[in-house]
């Protein structure tokens, strides 16, 4: 092992936790662009651990492939998002959507012994092709062997066992874990793990890994911070995709429809568990801080600092502005399902993979990070 690799093992282990949120994940790119500007052009990443769920898993994996050069990794990921369109994520043409829905219906009309494909309103095969083209998964192991990367964790939900499963690839010192509703499984991260973690229920089909089917990692994830802590993080930077500022209800007085309820459920899935886990971490840090050092070490307890960054503004107003850029076939399907671009903007914000909306989110993330630059720089400092 080289001397540079040996020195990396003595670095403070800072984890980057990227939450899920579909198209909202573009916000994370803006934050990362701002952080990358504070580092030299050729400089290792401030993060040695990457944890991602759903769309955040895609961003985490891309960054993990370039841990030795943080700015390069952010630049490549930024290029991907700024050039992303809806057709790169799922089939959005009229013929493509009709073909997918027709194939789904025909498969379920066949005999019982015929195994029907996983159900999903949208066909995400374009996303599979995109990930295969832009990600070089062999780089992950290279970064681990070089000592630049401690580990990468991708969380998905097992539909058979109703457990949260974290697939991780990392250094040999990281041991698998088992809890009542969550397990950690060492493996080689592939496209299938990313598709599984980002398979929003009903919207995208589940992904098969081994003999089980997996869906969006946020569904059964009770403790989002657990993977980072189990992989040895000393600090955790969380880039959340749920604004703390409540959105306007536009004077809504009638009973909520299916789409409105779906939007609230998705917000709850992606946000509520993180808030509870952060409160738990804060209580544990207080407990460890008041405990004798020898006793804390005996109980294998340690303080872990967390920095929670989230959007300063809600996304609903942006959805209303850029909804017209969504492909007409997708808008038609949403109308059939009773989804309104105004009253149901929450659920639409997850699926609006259009350049103008994405670039606006990137700019928002960049500005929010710049507004907290001094705090972020202090948190990420090697001091």
From TrEMBL:
Residue stretches in coiled coil: none
Q: Which GO terms describe its biological process?
A: lipid catabolic process
Q: Which domain of life is it from?
A: Bacteria
Q: Does the keyword Lipid metabolism apply?
A: yes
The answer to whether keyword Oxidoreductase applies is: no
Alphabetical list of Gene3D superfamilies matching this protein? Cytosolic phospholipase A2 catalytic domain
Which keywords accompany this UniProt record?
Answer: Hydrolase, Lipid degradation, Lipid metabolism
Active-site residues, as the UniProt record annotates them:
54 (nucleophile), 216 (proton acceptor)
Q: Which PROSITE patterns match?
A: PNPLA
Which InterPro entries does the record associate with it? Acyl_Trfase/lysoPLipase (IPR016035), NTE (IPR050301), PNPLA_dom (IPR002641)
GO terms (molecular function) for this protein are: hydrolase activity
The record's Pfam families line, in alphabetical order, gives: Patatin (PF01734)
Q: Where is this motif: GXSXG?
A: 52-56
The PNPLA domain is annotated at: 16-229
Record's protein name: Patatin-like phospholipase
Q: Which organism is it from?
A: Grimontia marina
